[in-house]
């Protein structure tokens, strides 16, 4: 018994028209994209590296903290030098160390003189067996250095 011959040409819906699709996607893209007009020059902003960073002389970086040091301990230590206006004590947000202290904090004082006093008196002082690293916040060491110090590498 002879088998019926099948047509070798694919159905019209199986072969998309590339020209139609390309035109549709181009018009769709043009609806969502905007280009600057030739008449108005784009506002040029200098790169971030050329802008001077504001010098925060009332905010201190406190590093090399022992894991048992908490916010209360830091407030006790740094309140001796003046009024602490803000304390940023950082914790790990994820991973196996989630919820544990990062080993550094930022202490902000009400006045620059108090911050200077804390910087000179607290830097290189022992707190629970570790020498504190106290600098102005803009001079904080990189996180790789902080991790190396904290792990003893």
From TrEMBL:
The keyword RNA-binding applies. GO terms for molecular function: RNA binding. The keyword Electron transport does not apply. InterPro entries: Nucleotide-bd_a/b_plait_sf (IPR012677), RBD_domain_sf (IPR035979), RBM18_RRM (IPR039157), RRM_dom (IPR000504), RRM_euk-type (IPR003954), SLIRP/GR-RBP-like (IPR052462). Pfam families: RRM_1. Residues 58-139 form the RRM domain. Residues 1-54 are annotated as: Disordered. SUPFAM superfamilies: RNA-binding domain, RBD. Residues 7-25, 34-48 have a biased composition (Low complexity). It comes from the Eukaryota. Keywords: RNA-binding. CDD domains: RRM_RBM18. This is Probable RNA-binding protein 18. It comes from Grifola frondosa.
């Amino acid at each position: 018994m002879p088998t019926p011959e099948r047509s070798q040409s694919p159905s019209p819906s199986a072969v998309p028209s590339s020209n139609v699709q390309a035109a549709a996607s181009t018009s769709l893209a043009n609806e969502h994209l905007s280009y600057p007009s030739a008449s108005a020059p784009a506002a040029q902003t200098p790169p971030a590296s050329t802008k001077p960073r504001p010098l925060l002389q009332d905010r201190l970086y406190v590093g090399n903290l022992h894991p048992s040091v908490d916010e209360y301990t830091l407030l006790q230590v740094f309140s001796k030098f003046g009024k602490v206006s803000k304390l940023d004590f950082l914790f790990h947000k994820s991973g196996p160390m989630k919820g544990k202290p990062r080993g550094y904090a930022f202490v902000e004082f009400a006045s620059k003189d108090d911050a200077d006093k804390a910087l000179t008196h607290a830097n290189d002082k022992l707190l629970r067996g570790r020498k504190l690293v106290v600098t102005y916040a803009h001079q904080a060491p990189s996180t790789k250095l902080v991790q190396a110090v904290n792990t003893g590498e």
